[in-house]
Amino acid sequence: MGMNVGSSGGGEDPETMLDVNTTPLIDVMLVLLVMLIITIPIQLHSVNLDMPPPSNRPPPQDPVVHEVAIDFDGTVFWDGAAVPNHAALEAKLSEVVAEPDQPEVHIKPNKLAEYGYVANVMASAQRLGVKKMAMVGNEQFLN
Question: What percent of the chain has a predicted confidence (pLDDT) above 90?
Answer without folding.
Answer: 43
